[in-house]
Amino acid sequence: MDTQQIIAIVVVAVIAIALIVAGVLADRSRKKRIDAAEQAREDREAAAKVAADKAIAAKQAAQAGTEAGAAAGAASTQSDQKSGTESTKQAESTQSVASSAESAGSTQPAQPESQEASQTAEPQPQTPESATSRMTRLKARLANSANPFGKALFNILAKDHLSEADWEDVEDTLLMADVGADASEQLVDELRNDARITGTHDPAQVREALRSKLLAMVGTDTDRRLNADKPEAHKPSVIIMVGVNGTGKTTTAGKLARLFVADGKSVMLGAADTFRAAAADQLETWGAKVNVPVVRSDKDGADPASVAFEASQRAKDDNADVLIIDTAGRLQNKANLMDELGKIRRVTEKNLPVDEVLLVLDATTGQNGMEQAKVFAQAIGITGVVLSKLDGSAKGGIVISVQKELGVPVKLVGLGEGPDDLAPFNPEDFVDGILA
């Protein structure tokens, strides 16, 4: 082996070592950016919670002051009335007193009748907000969100010259918005190759490029209709709600019932979450507000499948349009939970076919909730996702990652604590809202 061959081998070895070292350093740098982004997200969430607690305390203090002022005013008025009454009594004669007693005797029978009428008056059912109105309000709330990641992306991409550090900031912003590592990398690559961003500084073109990329990743051609709204849907159309406890599953079931009522459909609820004591009571409260009947067990801890069977039979007998079955979401033993959900589905299908299984996912848990979501997706065959607690577009990237990971569309989003803050998910309105 001559000297030139040895030198060539050494050069190749040095280059290989340099490439390996560069790769390791790049990987460490990326991990540091992800950790820093996650820490920044947690700090912002903690600060937002403290600010919200302060706002609630201030509101309660203001309300207490208002009530105290009203009580003082009422006491003053009552004192004045009492003084005037005493003066009048001193001026009355015995004859007027007798006349007053006779008059009082003649009006006494009317008082119990009025009280009886007020006691027997039935509360009027609420009229839920229409789906169209909800979607308009959803878009406006996203546009006014405190930390929309779309605006942060636009501010970076609209710079005159994008350095490598700027592109790292773009990726960090996507990660903090819970877009997910793989989707973030893909989106950054596509943005870097888009001539509308790299070849011009026109903000309108940059915004349109960003909008088109986000829409492509969210998906515009996906059928996001609830199966109950499709022409071929069964009647009653059965929807089973699944998800871990704490995601707002029972609340979402109640809100979904209101959405169907607003669309003119007759709805029935099945309280098959028999392991959480307050679940059935909570569901009945939601149903009572819009005259939706709830099928529940007489005792806590009853067999959930028996409740589902009874609910499906009742819905079939009453010819309801939709039956929504709420289920337990304990994850202490995944195998038992999945077996239980499978039993609920099998028993229900003895009466009615199940058209829909909706997974309720808490948007604020972000990537931490994805592993739990995968368990349900693999075990029970979900048809769609409901993102609850999507209370700001700073976490809006979860829409992209959840669809990419689970392979099913986001069909509904919950944005806020109001009874009508559940709306059908519209990709265009969503993206336009976060870029407003």
Automatic annotation (TrEMBL):
Biased amino acid composition, Polar residues: 76-134
Gene3D superfamilies tied to this protein: P-loop containing nucleotide triphosphate hydrolases, Signal recognition particle SRP54, nucleotide-binding domain
Transmembrane intervals: 6-26
Binding positions for GTP per the UniProt entry: 243-250, 326-330, 388-391
Name of the protein described by the UniProt record: Signal recognition particle receptor FtsY
GO MF annotation: an example: GTPase activity
Region (Disordered): 56-134
